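Our preliminary data section would be incomplete without showing what the modeling component actually yields. Below, a chain of 250 amino acids is followed by its predicted structure, encoded as tokens that our downstream tools consume directly.
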Amino acid sequence: TGLTGNGKTVLASDYCRIEALSYEFICWIDCREIDLIEPQVRNLVGQLTKDKIAPDSAVGAVFAGILGRRPGPWLLVLDGIQDRSRIEEYIPSRGHGSILVTSNNSLNWWPGAEIIEVGEFSDDEAVDCFATYADIAAGSVDALRDSILDIVNRVGRVPVAVGMTGIYFKNTEGQLSELALQYFQDLEALSDSQSIPPGFNRTAFAAIRYAVRSLGAGSPAADSYGRSARAVVEIGALLAPELLPLNLML
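Predicted structure:
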């Protein structure tokens, strides 16, 4: 559990990648849109059984039954669910497997569930992350630590925003302390409280939008590709900012 942008989905996906050989199969269900859960489950049933499920059948019971009968071990990931009641029908009452849930809501889960709180970065983690994305040499970090701390604290030390902010400063020449003033003035101009995901730090969200708007700036391909790239990534940032693979896409 944790606020949007703290990296819950990233941690879950990393776990799936690292432990992939520990499971017979992994089922990942994106639960952000409630109406899209059932179609995903129907698709998974088809993959696991090679059978087509009638549109009027109770697919939840079929899916839970499949998991309960498989020798496993299997892993079921339910990503971005807010209400336990929305997924109860897909949870088997028995079986050899594990269930991993990511949520902004830390309340009213199963009595035996282990709750892991994913919070914002510590000061050291935020400084290290910023330095990595800003491409600051290890030997220079200590001298710039105070300036970096001022920047990362103003974006709430939210992991996705720290990475985005670091990318901006990597692509801008000048002293951090001087650049920061103009940077945060620009963020204030981008502030839009109506489009911020619930629970998300206002300045952190502006940092993401600002980085998106800067894609391709100053490059020969900016006019050809920059506008399309910005449109795609900005929509992605609005829908699920924690899913942006910063070190790859940007």
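Strands lie at 25-30, 74-79, 97-102. The CA atoms of residues 11 and 72 lie 22 Å apart. Preliminary results of this kind motivate Aim 1 of the renewal.
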